[in-house]
Design a protein that fits this description.
Helix content is about 50%, strand content about 10%. The model has no long low-confidence stretch (mean pLDDT about 95). The protein has a 5-stranded mixed β-sheet. A 3-stranded antiparallel β-sheet has the order 4-10-9. Strands 6-7 form a two-stranded antiparallel sheet. By secondary structure, it is of the alpha+beta class.
Amino acid sequence: MAAADDLAFDPWDPAFVSDPYPAYAELRDRGRVTYYEPTNQWLVPRHADVSALLRDRRLGRTYQHRFTHEDFGRTAPPPEHEPFHTLNDHGMLDLEPPDHTRIRRLVSKAFTPRTVEQLRPYVSRLAGELVDALVAKGGGDLLTDVAEPLPVAVIAEMLGIPESDRAPLRPWSADICGMYELSPSEDTAAKAVRASNEFSSYLRELIAARRKNPGDDLISGMIAAHDEDDDRLTEQELISTAVLLLNAGHEATVNSTVNGWWALFRNPDQLATLRADHSLIPSAVEELMRYDTPLQLFERWVLDEIEIDGTTIPRGAELAMLFGAANHDPAVFTDPDRLDLTRADNPHISFSAGIHYCIGAPLARIELAASMGALLEKAPTLRLAAEPERKPNFVIRGLEGLSVEVG
């Protein structure tokens, strides 16, 4: 068992956050699982283990379907955090069967592949308009000018959130997602609680309006969705699902876009290859998500004792699945620290796996390909204008901005 000061893994160290991949290599070399005392978690860095454990039903995103906090040896969240947990804990990402199965089945009735595919022309048009505006002013911040507004607008359009109501969506999401970092501060929790209350209140009113006057949007579809037992989503499940779809529906896409272009600027040979052959866009999207993974860590609770490489992990423990480490595992990826947009065999796990595989993955791929295609076509001279700064977050990996020039 490794002591905390014996590891290069340090999620609060800016140098580690800037480039965690060397520390991941050390973890993979150390073994299949390593205890990390500062967060009381078991770190799992290898691709085969992460992939298998994401599908292992002895683990769960929650334990409350089987145990109380006391039974599980855990402390209940402070009462003042309750609005965040009510919102978060009723979303399918943090539920286990049978609730997860029921909610995902009902949501899937509205969030169909056909629904997503029908958005492709809208996504392409919006991406083109955003890039046109960037080119017209000779550059700007790729984060705020293209990467953010595209997926936020798309998921808001899907949900049926009026354009005039969309300004708070990104700030609400950012404040809520702050709670997914390791050991969030009380200030972070207070912001998440406030955002949870405000977002929930807004959606409660919107859902009431859609019940009276249904549209062809996703919220109306989820209200109407039912199964053969006439089972429907509760109002809290509707609210939590809408927030989850909005937050998950843009956070990864935003960060994949700016992380990806920053990687391309640092690898000019690969950027030149992509500019010469736009047919590489689909494989480029997959490789960029692998190369600098937007979600670095995903947690699982141990519901029933398991053993990993001779180490017994007891019930009540928490596993930290290191997606970024798994996506750079040389046992799976040839020369994993090299960006290769032509990489054919690319089983990255950036969209997770198992029952919690990202329901929005097809939409994210459409958005990433659309913005990349628009930038390659309309801004062929796009170049970096200033060295970007990393956000201090570890779990959700992104940049403060990405300043670019055109022309």
